[in-house]
What we know:
By secondary structure, this protein is of the alpha+beta class. It contains six helices and seven strands, in the order ββααααβββαββα. It folds into three domains: about 30-60, no CATH class; about 60-95, no CATH class; about 100-200, no CATH class. The radius of gyration is 37 Å and the shape is rod-shaped. The strands form three sheets. It has a three-stranded antiparallel sheet with strand order 3-4-5. Mean pLDDT is about 75; it is low at about 50-55.
Amino acid sequence: MTHYAHIKPCRRCQKPYMSSQQYKSICPGCQAYRGKKARCPSCQKPMRRQHRTQAQPGPCWECKGRARRERMVCPDCGGYKTQQSKRCAACNLRFYRGPRSHHWKGGRYYTQGYVMLWAPDHPRAQSNGYIREHIKVWMDAHGNLPAEYSIHHLNGVRDDNRLVNLAAVPRKWNRSYHVQRLLQHRIRGLEQQLADGVAAIV
């Protein structure tokens, strides 16, 4: 009876080897290593039974777990992160914001009719690093804004952030009789400018 050599993977080390026995499933290296006490190449501790029959054993389960836990430490804050990510969720929010963000639109966008500007170093900036433009314009011209005051648009247009269209009023006065007086004063000033312009043209 003629026997032919078969090339097939080893059942233990998964390496291909040549064998003339059709039903043999272990390579000669694993067969010779069977029964010997293997040691972990990292910590030199005796391997478990599942690893003792491998010709070239890798690190033990404890060393694998330790290496996996080291890969799951955030390099910025030392907190927990997933194995696939580079940083933890909190550090990702701080790192990928502003010009590094995937949704960067030049540091200016609209929300609820207001214009938001990228100014992370501003004292009134929000947690995402943006500030409403009308607050920044008023504070650049007049200084610090008290906490109990808010900036009101005189003509009611939220994206009209000209300095002449902004007024700082107490929060309890907002949308009250005092705001109406400011609006009336603003309207009278505009009407006077229009009248002066028409008179100059005539």
